[in-house]
Fold this protein.
Amino acid sequence: MTSTTSKSAYWRGIRNGLPFLFVAIPFATLFGVVATEAGFNILETMGFSVLIIGGAAQFAAVQQMVDNSPTLIVIAIALAVNLRMAMYSAALVPYLGSAPLWQRVLLSYVLFDQNYALSVLEYEKRPEMSVGEKVAFFVGAATPIIPAWYGMTLVGALVGSQIPPEYALDFALPITFLSILAPAIRTLAHLLAAVVSVTAALIFAFLPFNLGLLVAAVLAMITGAQTELWLERRGKWT
């Protein structure tokens, strides 16, 4: 790998990551608004965004804290929402597992839905990429989003109360996940896991402290894993 190819991969990652600013900016702003309205000060609000960089988990944790849920429930819900990051990490091992430890530590911090989806697609499209190029692309895809996430969280925390409600910033959350989910459903296992998760979340919505999300996540993972095992066995038999 040369520095030229690494830089090229990095800038390609930046270009591919730029469109996600259209959802990251209002999403981060909305979190700043929600957190301050929930009673968090600026330092606490920014601490959430800087330490976690996990929008959905941040919203879930804040909501549970507003509802005065037990600490263990708050942690469990946030971990359940972010459990997909563990699956993302496992999926990235074939591509980035041989990178130096310090790089893997950095990548784990900047791992989120958008650059995971972009990177996997890029790696599959360009199998000739070296590990260094893959790391550069991954970091590049995160580069536009992270400063925007920090900065717009601060903006939301400072001026969120002045944003008119008709601007409906909460549209960012469903659009973000739909933009990632749609191209990710490429196998029967993915499809069944998605169907089970949605169905279970609706069925168990009556459970207190949003525990239905935990149930839905577990059932979806079991469904996806069992479907993949069934397909693998079926392939061996045929």
Observations:
- The chain has two domains: 3-169, 185-238.
- The mean pLDDT is 84.
